[in-house]
UniProtKB/TrEMBL annotation, chains A, B:
InterPro entries registered for this protein in UniProt: KFase/CYL, KFase_sf, TAT_signal
Leader peptide range in chain numbering: 1-40
Annotated organism of origin: Ancylobacter tetraedralis
Protein name per its UniProtKB record: Kynurenine formamidase
Swiss-Prot/TrEMBL GO biological process terms: L-tryptophan catabolic process to kynurenine
Keywords, ordered alphabetically: Signal
PROSITE patterns: TAT (PS51318)
Amino acid sequence: MPGCQEAVAQRLSRRGLFKGAAGAAALAAFSAAPVGGAFAAPVSFTRVVDLTHVLDPAFPTFFGKPQLEVRKLFTFDKDGFNLNEWVVNEHTGTHLDTPFHFSKDGPSADALAIENLVVPLVVIDVSAKAGGNPDYQVTAADIVAYEAVNGAVPPGAAVALYSGWEKHLGTDMFRNADAAGTMHFPGFHPDVSAVLAEKGVSGVVVDTLSLDHGASKDFGFHYKWLGSGRWGVEAAANLGTLPPKGATLVVGGPKIKGASGGPSRVLALV
Amino acid sequence: MPGCQEAVAQRLSRRGLFKGAAGAAALAAFSAAPVGGAFAAPVSFTRVVDLTHVLDPAFPTFFGKPQLEVRKLFTFDKDGFNLNEWVVNEHTGTHLDTPFHFSKDGPSADALAIENLVVPLVVIDVSAKAGGNPDYQVTAADIVAYEAVNGAVPPGAAVALYSGWEKHLGTDMFRNADAAGTMHFPGFHPDVSAVLAEKGVSGVVVDTLSLDHGASKDFGFHYKWLGSGRWGVEAAANLGTLPPKGATLVVGGPKIKGASGGPSRVLALV
């Protein structure tokens, strides 16, 4: 389908939503949309990749303690059907960080427009650097290097950091806490927030437990990025299976009123 | 993009996943897929429609009592960031019903293959009938009437029942319980389960609180449909804005181990 291939390239401009959008102008798109938005050119895909980890009470957490309890309220053997309730921290498993997480009154999960959660996906591979330096922080130079090979990051896109950290899941290396309790895993440098915002990027995705690197003492990227009205996804799966450009991210975030984020179903349409 | 229009039509055959799939044979596709599946022909869309209601503790429930509590664990003013935990019943708001909900050992939310949650969407409008009869049950005749106008329900599709019940949200009419507590809203007749299964349908979607009609005393459709390894979505929004065919449903269900279902982000790509 050559026509669709071209459409994939064309939609990267997202003219309908993001014409001229850059920096703060892009924020206008973050108002709540009750139904949804239109793309200027067709988006096309032939496969779906699940970027979501299975979540159970043992899934590692930023705070280091379990953040999910599954309580059986009804069971098939006793009641004829199965039904549980969850006690769950909003920032558990593969999950959404909303602007409200690190701002006084930014949009919460119910207020993010759906057209900002279905967006072109850019994947920046820093796994080689992060493999040699667990404290690695993505900088503006990494964005420049990406664009030199792949072309400009399209306005409205999500930018995913593929650090390769997923391979440590199930071991202490995923949190990689030292004797003092400081964690060591890669993340976004706070200074790159303004660089991505200037390009009109909607959100960022990491395969670790935090948008900031584990050793951050001040949540510098969180405050700048989420505080500017943008979103993040943490603990994504399977980023290493994706092309550097051309996929469409679907962030199936919770639509719970006032939520600062929450476990999400995150997909890539490729 | 005429090529993409054709692709939309072609993908309805879903040859890659569902060639010859009918009845029980389609169940083979319900095994867990860790990464994702491929479509035989490109799927194309130009807009996204959010089929998810905003969920708050006042959202109506099947059991009639609140099923969501949002507990503030950290607040921006006091702690520098906002973070809540939820106590939430799996069957609250716009949510997924898995086979495990009404079977002893069917697939739970973490075990549904992602390619069965991104599928062609058929919308059957029975709002006129349901408007005059709150106890209306969709029958095989409604499927026949749909296909006479729109062509065959494609294998692998989701079939949505648009009853128009959404307009009652925010009033007692949404549950429409009588003096004895019996609810009165439309749903799928139990006999239609076999009809849809024979066509290889993956899941069903309703805009009410139950796959069965409200007055059901035996969860007849639930047992047959979910018990056969298929899924449902309840309390969907905005079905009335969709075309009868041509859209793609994305069920952003929770990937929580052992979940019988859960609040989900449900979208249509049109």
